[in-house]
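Example record

One chain of 211 residues, shown exactly as stored in the release files.
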Amino acid sequence: MGSKPVIDVLNLSKRYADFQLQINNLKINEGSIVGLVGENGSGKSTFLNLLLNQIKSEIGNVKIFGLDYVKDEYQIKLNLGVILEQNYFPNSFSVQQIEKMLEKIYSRWDKKLYHNLIDDFDLPTNKPISNFSRGMLVKLNFAATLSHHPRLLIADEATSGLDPIVRKEILSMLKEYVNDNQMTVLLSSHILSDLEQVANYFIFSKRSEDR
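Predicted structure tokens for this chain:
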């Protein structure tokens, strides 16, 4: 496992009317799979949104790959993969049309890897993805995201609601890919048994009682 921090968070604070997220010092190193665990309302989604620069903190510092979003947002996001519970590809697109779109966006698009993953997941290439089941959409999202070789993958409840066999298939593929490519993964899930299959270590998000 590498010692270089891919995520480096220092003295971070984000406050809402009824909630405050506080992170004093957190480093996630290269080549690790980290499980993010916590009860609803403990700040997991807030933390992920801060890492993705969707919201801003009041104080503190977030660095991704040693870079700062203020100066290097484009460079960070080129090397970032994100898989969420929802599907964000147009429903009328096919697997092939999604490839044509993504290969224009990512300079490191890997056509061979994409087709290998699509074949391994047994996904049809010509049908509109509106015909896909939830499990097929999740497999497509993983195939599309991994095929631009992100250095960091953030997945938020990506396998939620899937059949256990499908979840195991996806997580096994992910673990194998990380081992081969030195990618870092931050995986948020309420299914602890899934995280136990793949995570090297865990981050626990905990609600503090009001004082």
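Notes: DSSP finds seven helices and nine strands in the chain.
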